[in-house]
Amino acid sequence: MNVYDSARMADVLKPLGYRPTETPADADMVILNTCHIRDRAAEKVFSELGRLRVIKQARAAEGRATVLAVAGCVAQAEGAEILARAPYVDIVLGPQTYHRLPEMVARAARAGGAVIETDFPVEQKFDFLPDATGPQLPGGVTAFLTVQEGCDKFCSFCVVPYTRGAEASRPAASVIAEARRMVAGGVREISLLGQNVNAYHGAGSGGGADESSWSLARLMRALAEIPGLVRIRYTTSHPRDMGEDLIAAHRDLPALMPFLHLPVQSGSDRMLNAMNRGHTADDYRRLIERLRTARPDLAFSSDFIVGHPGETDADFAASMALIRDIGFAQAYSFKYSSRPGTPAAGAPMPVAGPVGDERLQQLQALVRVQQDQFNASSVGQTMEVLFTGHGRKPGQLSGRSPYLQAVHAAGPDQLIGTTAMVKIEQMLTNSLTASLLSPVPTRPIPTRANPLLERACA
Ligand code: SAH
Ligand code: SF4
């Protein structure tokens, strides 16, 4: 979401004459777009600011001014604290205020003092930010599109409800219009974004029955009609918001890729309750079964936290058991990081650091085995790849499989920006190599059942 927001900030600054530079030393303005989800991410901001201070001073010595801005969730959470630690910062702006950036730049220049904007304005930022007109990365054929922001779920450990604010959805018409412009600009795959993307309930696209709010499934059905948009993904979902129509969308929409990131955090009901997740481990297992019934080759990814306050060996063992039962194609896992202001920050029975490290290692080793098994099961398979750019070797193209695996194949440049059928030849550490079967663009065809599911059921 920060990548998407950064691109919108660049768009909003364009009319003022700003354009991207290669290095901070060439920049009249530097914006750090920050993340507050874990302590380490937040601390990185201050070490980066220290480096930028040196650049700002060097430029000042040459008579060149540098506006330094801190955006994102660290700005939202720490506000004036940033200026206390780094008084050379000019602008501190929270994630809901990016549309006001030009005005803040003007104010900072006029006043010569720092500007702080960390309120949650009544107007929605997306009503004022320019739409994306193409991919966010130069030459990219894939793009992010934010459809929903914020969260009302208040998991015990999480800062998102405080930094991104209450859950809000963009109107369907605005999302569809932005997607159309992206596709006209060469985008072939759109990843719909939201902290709780499947809680999406945007206002309908206008007129008659459309007045009611749209679900994510309905939105995706409309997006799938856009000619030239061959792939749709969405992230991040909450198990509680995985409605029947969304499960059906996985069955019905060929453009909806068979890869789902569905964080569960823990396999222990005791911990899920302490985390305020609102579901049990078996709810999650049943949900995965329903999704696999709808789309047998659906591959899953998840997030896990180890070492949440109160987590015992038995709770951790329950997480490992859940991973073994389900079989993930990949997963992200984190050691619990205490975030000021969240309910878990003051919770009793903290887990000792080394215990958390040990659990994290074990969990990551298990996920790695599953990831390797999943990738190995792709060897020999025929599947569709969306080619997004050049590989590292001459004549090599790189792209993604439907299951989000990185794939390399020898092929002509004209294939970049198109899909083609390949045969997977070999598994490397973090990617697959493949040979082209047809350079003709095709639609995705589900070709196989998930071998991990078969193993789990056996
Ligand atoms: N909305 C998504 C997750 C958003 S945050 C969900 O509900 O699942 C992304 C991930 O960061 C979370 O899934 C969680 O695994 C991790 N995370 C969030 N807060 C954390 C904390 N305090 N310590 C460690 N990991 C955390
Ligand atoms: Fe954070 Fe996700 Fe929980 Fe919301 S649902 S509080 S974003 S972990």
From TrEMBL:
Catalytic activity entry: N(6)-dimethylallyladenosine(37) in tRNA + (sulfur carrier)-SH + AH2 + 2 S-adenosyl-L-methionine = 2-methylsulfanyl-N(6)-dimethylallyladenosine(37) in tRNA + (sulfur carrier)-H + 5'-deoxyadenosine + L-methionine + A + S-adenosyl-L-homocysteine + 2 H(+)
Gene name per UniProt: miaB
Needed cofactors: [4Fe-4S] cluster
EC identifiers of the protein: 2.8.4.3
Domain Radical SAM core: 137-375
A cellular component term, taken from the record's GO annotations: cytosol
NCBIfam families reported in the protein's UniProt record: miaB-methiolase, MiaB/RimO family radical SAM methylthiotransferase
Family of the protein in this entry: Belongs to the methylthiotransferase family. MiaB subfamily.
Gene Ontology MF terms in the entry: 4 iron, 4 sulfur cluster binding; metal ion binding; tRNA-2-methylthio-N(6)-dimethylallyladenosine(37) synthase activity
Cofactor note: Binds 2 [4Fe-4S] clusters. One cluster is coordinated with 3 cysteines and an exchangeable S-adenosyl-L-methionine.
Function comment: Catalyzes the methylthiolation of N6-(dimethylallyl)adenosine (i(6)A), leading to the formation of 2-methylthio-N6-(dimethylallyl)adenosine (ms(2)i(6)A) at position 37 in tRNAs that read codons beginning with uridine.
Protein name: tRNA-2-methylthio-N(6)-dimethylallyladenosine synthase
Keywords for the protein's UniProt record, in alphabetical order: 4Fe-4S, Cytoplasm, Iron, Iron-sulfur, Metal-binding, S-adenosyl-L-methionine, Transferase, tRNA processing
Binding site for [4Fe-4S] cluster: C151, C155, C158
Domain of life of the organism encoding this protein: Bacteria
UniProt domain TRAM: residue ranges: 376-438
Annotated compartments: Cytoplasm
Pfam families: Radical_SAM, TRAM, UPF0004
Domain spans labelled MTTase N-terminal: 1-110
SUPFAM superfamilies (UniProt xref): Radical SAM enzymes
UniProt subunit comment: Monomer.
PROSITE patterns registered for this protein in UniProt: MTTASE_N, MTTASE_RADICAL, RADICAL_SAM, TRAM
